[in-house]
Design a protein that fits this description.
There is one protein chain. The protein has 242 residues and is an alpha+beta fold. The protein has nine helices and eleven strands. The chain is 38% helix and 22% strand. It has a four-stranded mixed β-sheet with strand order 3-6-7-8, sandwiched between helices. It has a three-stranded antiparallel β-sheet with strand order 9-11-10. It is elongated, with a radius of gyration of 20 Å. It starts with 8 loop residues before the first helix and ends with a strand.
Length: 242
C-alpha cells in the first residue's frame, strides 16, 4: 500500500471481481450452485466456543456460514428483500491503513443491490460504540466510499426490528416453493387494477386457500408481489403490486 491509499488496491480489485461473480449467480435456482463463490471462513466454532451454523439461501443457491445469531437474523432479512440481488457471508479480508499501521478486516457480509456493493459488519450496539470500532468504521466508510463501495455497521437496533424480522423468518419457510402461476397471475392483475388487500383476503379468493397462501408467500419472497405494509401476524400484511 502506498501512503496515499486507505484500502489496499489489490483487495479492492478482488472485491469487485467477487461481486461480479456473485451477481451472475442465478436467483431462486432449484439446486445448489456447486461452483459458486467460496466463503473465506471454514469454522466450526467462533471465539466464544459457541457452535455456528449455515444458512441455506435459495435466492443465491448457496449454503453459507454465520458466526452469531444476530448475523443469522440479518441473512433472513437479505433473503426476503427484493432489492438485494445477492449476498455472501465472510466474503474476503481487506487490508487498510490506520495511521502508520496496516490492519486486516474481514466484513461479515457482502451484499449487492442493483450496482451497489455494500460490505456489512454485524455488531451489537455496545460493541459498535467502542472507540476502536468507530474509528475503523470511519476509516472504511471513507476509504471504500471513494471506490463506490458502501460500508455499514448494522446492530440489533436495525436488524431485530419487529414485525419485520418475524415476518422475514416466516417468509423464509417458503423459499423452496415455486409460486403457482394460476394463483400469481390473477392476483397480480387484481392488485394492479383494484388496489391492495391483505394476504389473508388474497388467499381466500381461491378455492384452495391454504395452497394459494403458500404461493402468495413464495411470490412475496421472490419479489413478484410486494408488501405495502407489514403487520403481525403476517396474514394481515397488506399486499400491493411489485
Amino acid at each position: 500500500m502506498t501512503p496515499s491509499e486507505t484500502v489496499n488496491r489489490e483487495d479492492l480489485a478482488a472485491l469487485h471481481a467477487l461481486s461480479k461473480e456473485l451477481g451472475e449467480v442465478e436467483q431462486w435456482n432449484t439446486y445448489a450452485v456447486s461452483n459458486g463463490p467460496d466463503t473465506s471462513l471454514n469454522l466450526q466454532f467462533n471465539r466464544t466456543c459457541r457452535g455456528i451454523g449455515h444458512f441455506a439461501s435459495r435466492k443465491v443457491a448457496l449454503r453459507m456460514p454465520y458466526i452469531s445469531s444476530l448475523e443469522r437474523d440479518l441473512l433472513y432479512l437479505l433473503e426476503v428483500d427484493p432489492k438485494i440481488r445477492a449476498y455472501l457471508t465472510q466474503p474476503m479480508a481487506l487490508r487498510y491503513r490506520e495511521g502508520e499501521l496496516i490492519r486486516t478486516h474481514l466484513p461479515d457480509v457482502l451484499s449487492l443491490a442493483n450496482d451497489q456493493e455494500t460490505l456489512i459488519e454485524v455488531k451489537y450496539a455496545d460493541e459498535a460504540a467502542l472507540p476502536e470500532m468507530r474509528r475503523r468504521t470511519q476509516i472504511l466508510e471513507a476509504g471504500l466510499g471513494r471506490h463506490g463501495v458502501a460500508y455499514r455497521v448494522l446492530t440489533e437496533k436495525i436488524i431485530r426490528v419487529e414485525p419485520r424480522l418475524t415476518n422475514a423468518r416466516i417468509l423464509c419457510r417458503y423459499r423452496w416453493l415455486t409460486p403457482d402461476q394460476r394463483v400469481l397471475e390473477p392476483l397480480q392483475e387484481y392488485l394492479e387494477h383494484k388496489g391492495s388487500l391483505t394476504i389473508r383476503d388474497a388467499a381466500a379468493k381461491f378455492e384452495q386457500a391454504a395452497e394459494a397462501a403458500n404461493s402468495i408467500l413464495a411470490a412475496v419472497l421472490r419479489g413478484q408481489l410486494a408488501v405495502q405494509r407489514w403487520a403481525s401476524p403476517m396474514e394481515d400484511s397488506i399486499l400491493s403490486v411489485a
